[in-house]
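Chapter review: from sequence to fold.
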Amino acid sequence: MNEEFYKVKRLPPYVFAEVNDMKARARADGADIIDFGMGNPDMPPPAHIIDKLIETTRNPRVHRYSNSRGIPGLRKALAGYYDRRFGVEIDPEREAIVTLGSKEGLANLAQAITSPGDVLLVPNPSYPIHQFGFIIAGGSARHIPVAPDGEFIAALERAVIHSVPKPIALVVNYPSNPTALTADLDFFSEVLEFCRRHEIYVLSDLAYAEIYFDGDPPPSILQIPGAKDIAVEFTSCSKTYSMPGWRIGFAAGNPRLIAALARVKSYLDYGAFTPVQVAATAALNGPQDCVEEVRQIYKERRDVLIDSLGRAGWDIPSPPATMFAWAPLPPAFASMGSLAFSKKLLEEAEVAVSPGIGFGEHGEGYVRIALCENTHRIRQAARNIRRFLSQADPSDSAAGSHLKAVS
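The token string follows.
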């Protein structure tokens, strides 16, 4: 009776918890922690979305159970978004479903399509649910590089040759969390051609479709002719409209995968609260200048972060998209490892970041910095980090005793 449960045993310790525990203890002791850790938007949703939520909640009929596939109006709004943004036609009845955030959609699709021992191809580093959704479902993950280049395709070739059983699905995520890498339609076309040839489904996470700064807007994999034969794509209101706590996301594409996800969800939930879905419909159908405003705020924060940390002595590549910077550890601290560095940065500079090792072993040597503080706080963090870099002893890899006790 004391043996650990099978599925729990398959999950490694959540490394972010160590930094989060330290952060909570430090704040309880009065420390002013500048939090670049979680990708948690700090801006409120646009007023017209909140107004629609309030208006809808006053209708006594909307407090009943909703629809696990999503209300028809919201699925139609998603189809309208795909048509406007990507020129892609989506059937709201057969090719679209509303999820409780894209994270829930990915996890439940994994439950729907994964048999014990199935092999899934997942980039490393990547957002944890991309891998662990399938591991929880009984599958196993084979890692491939995250950069959208020739090595990615070569890794797919090796995976098909050496995986037993043959992989059933591939996860792609561009713009990427945590690396902020982007991909173009030529890359997606090559991936789809390979996966169609080998009968592998493609699951695309496009949560950061509207948070981009440089170059063309990120494309959808569904823009490739025939993509819906094998691909499904996840999007979300969380970052685009600053609605992370509302838990509204979507899946669109291959009807068989959508039906499988709908079947599982029909046993697990009754869908998001109807007024939240009505407000999300207003977000997709309403004025979109709010999206550009949010994009410009993140761009300004990115520019301030890269510039101020560069002047502090920490050179970080400028991300072309997402709300994250993927930062290599400062050279003097490279041997420390990302978790120890993150803990030391929190203790001595009062700045929280996410250790790269939490996104997979190939994330080691990096930390993820979220653009979830205003420019004043970013500059304050840069001043703290400048002092830290000039005074800290890289050979001391342990966090201080006061905070170490909670890790």
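Two observations follow directly from the output. Residues 344 and 363 are 18 Å apart (CA to CA). DSSP finds 14 helices and twelve strands in the chain.
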